[in-house]
């Protein structure tokens, strides 16, 4: 992990207590704090905090839908306590706490998934119009499906079209959301296109959660952008107590949206509960050799060309491989038509949903493991994740806690790891950084005697 480009310049930093060195322990190159905390323990504590931030996000959405989140709340509190000054200096116990957080990550993603499907039905595959918009229109970004459900009810029959952006795309798969005919389509890609996209989209916009980009100085959409609950930026409007009336009134005052006339469709709605119904066909295809391997290419996206890796990887996979994806990283390649596995009817591209739906890949892997009578590590599955923020941390911890190995991550090494922690993860979970597509594929792809790899 240590290349010059990715060198961590401040291996240790902590300023949380009165024993802190001036400007923080580590700020003058100390590799341990005044209390005796080492750089590795400081970094493990950072990872714990980042993990529970991700946990808290999913917990909030599950709680909004009435789920019992007490076990999650307890682990959040316990972990915060764990990272206090002079509580714990043991490497092994920090790893154990990380696994505890990961196990609750699995629990909270299942809670949220079940809460979503109970409230909105089980998603089924759907083709969604991409970059075509008309009429008085609201664009909805973020992850909060509950907010979208309330907004669709509030705008019913009002002459308003509702469009999704980024992590809202999977909304179209949910029967209780897509029954609203005015939920029309999706506009744009991953979260980081929003300055350009929101400037071009002349309707109103509502940000239901992260990822929200700060306004650029020349942004023309501040007076058309609304925050929701804890999501906001200085200078924009805010929805209070689920009262969408001001947003609706402004949407109707603004002229109809123009400039989005593309005739293109993307597919979503392959929730794991729907895909499980394909299991017998999938197992047969694997056993007969028609389906060689599954690649989970999933995770967050960040600006820049480093993320092109994931498009190239998806494009380079042989036509007997299936891609499972989640989160906004999918916009790197979900415009492509991957077709089906031979004449089996099994789609080669399966969009399981939002980042929290990553747990769906685990359910599918467990079902496959049972059907093929193979342990998880022997399944024809490889996981290649892109990470950006702290929900990706809880997803990674959740996978580790389940004992899932052979994960490659990118596009950049997390700066909160140090060499020692990375080596531990490499040795125990075979965690790797992505490299270049050709070399990685050579290593990841199961070789076939009868086909060119
Ligand atoms: S907890 Fe330890 S490492 Fe952190 S500021 Fe206090 S003395 Fe320094
Ligand atoms: S998947 Fe990650 S990067 Fe993308 S919008 Fe969600 S939280 Fe942000």
Descriptive account of the structure:
The protein is of the alpha/beta class and 453 residues long. It has helices at 39-64, 70-82, 91-120, 145-155, 175-178, 194-200, 245-253, 272-275, 279-287, 308-316, 359-372, 390-401, 419-429, 437-444, and strands spanning 126-130, 136-141, 160-164, 183-186, 204-207, 225-228, 237-239, 265-268, 293-299, 321-326, 349-353, 381-386, 407-410, 432-433. Among the domains are: 126-253, Rossmann fold (3-Layer(aba) Sandwich), CATH 3.40.50.2030; 268-444, Rossmann fold. The protein is built from 14 helices and 14 strands. The strands form two sheets. Strands 7-6-5-2-3-4-1-8 form an eight-stranded mixed beta sheet, with helices on one face. Helix 10 links the parallel strand 9 and strand 10 (321-326). The protein starts with 38 loop residues before the first helix and ends in a 9-residue tail after the last helix. The model has no long low-confidence stretch (mean pLDDT 95). It binds iron/sulfur cluster (2 copies). One iron/sulfur cluster binds at residues 14-17, 19-20, 25, 33-35, 37, 85.
């Amino acid at each position: 992990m240590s290349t010059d480009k990715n060198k961590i310049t401040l291996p240790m930093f902590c300023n949380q207590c009165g024993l802190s060195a001036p400007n923080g322990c580590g700020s003058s190159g100390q590799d341990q704090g005044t209390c005796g905390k080492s750089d590795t323990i400081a970094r493990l504590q950072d990872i714990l905090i980042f993990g529970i931030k991700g946990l808290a996000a999913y917990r909030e959405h599950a709680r909004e839908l009435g789920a019992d989140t007490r076990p999650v709340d307890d682990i959040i509190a316990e972990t915060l306590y764990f990272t206090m000054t002079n509580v714990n200096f043991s490497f092994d116990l920090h790893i154990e706490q990380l696994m505890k957080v990961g196990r609750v990550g699995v629990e909270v993603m299942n809670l949220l998934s079940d809460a979503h499907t109970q409230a909105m039905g089980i998603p089924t595959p759907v083709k969604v119009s991409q970059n075509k918009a008309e009429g008085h229109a609201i664009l909805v970004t973020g992850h909060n499906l509950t907010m979208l459900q309330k907004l669709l009810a509030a705008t019913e029959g009002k002459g308003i079209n509702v469009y999704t952006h980024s992590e809202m795309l999977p909304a179209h798969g949910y029967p209780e959301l897509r029954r609203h005919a005015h939920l029309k389509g999706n506009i744009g890609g991953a979260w980081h296109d929003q300055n350009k996209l929101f400037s071009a989209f002349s309707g109103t916009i509502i940000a239901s959660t992260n990822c929200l980009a700060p306004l650029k100085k020349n942004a023309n959409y501040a007076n058309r952008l609304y925050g929701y609950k804890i999501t906001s930026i200085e200078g924009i409007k805010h929805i209070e107590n689920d009262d969408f009336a001001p947003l609706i009134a402004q949407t109707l005052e603004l002229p109809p949206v123009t400039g989005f006339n593309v005739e293109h469709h993307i597919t979503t709605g392959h929730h794991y509960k729907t895909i499980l119904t394909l299991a017998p066909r999938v197992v047969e295809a694997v056993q007969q050799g028609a389906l060689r391997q599954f690649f989970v290419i999933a995770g967050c996206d960040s600006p820049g060309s480093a993320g092109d890796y994931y498009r190239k990887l998806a494009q380079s996979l042989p036509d007997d491989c299936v891609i499972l994806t989640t989160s906004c990283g999918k916009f790197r390649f979900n415009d492509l038509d991957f077709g089906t596995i031979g004449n089996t009817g099994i789609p080669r591209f399966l969009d399981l949903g939002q980042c929290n739906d990553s747990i769906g890949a685990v359910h599918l892997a467990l079902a496959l493991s049972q059907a093929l009578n193979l342990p998880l590590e022997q399944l024809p599955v490889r996981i290649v994740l892109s990470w950006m923020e702290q929900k990706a941390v809880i997803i990674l911890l959740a996978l580790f806690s389940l004992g899932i190995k052979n994960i490659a991550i990118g596009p950049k090494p997390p700066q909160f790891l140090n060499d020692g922690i990375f080596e531990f993860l490499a040795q125990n979970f075979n965690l790797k950084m992505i490299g270049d597509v050709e070399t990685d594929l050579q290593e990841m792809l199961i070789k076939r005697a009868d086909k060119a790899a």
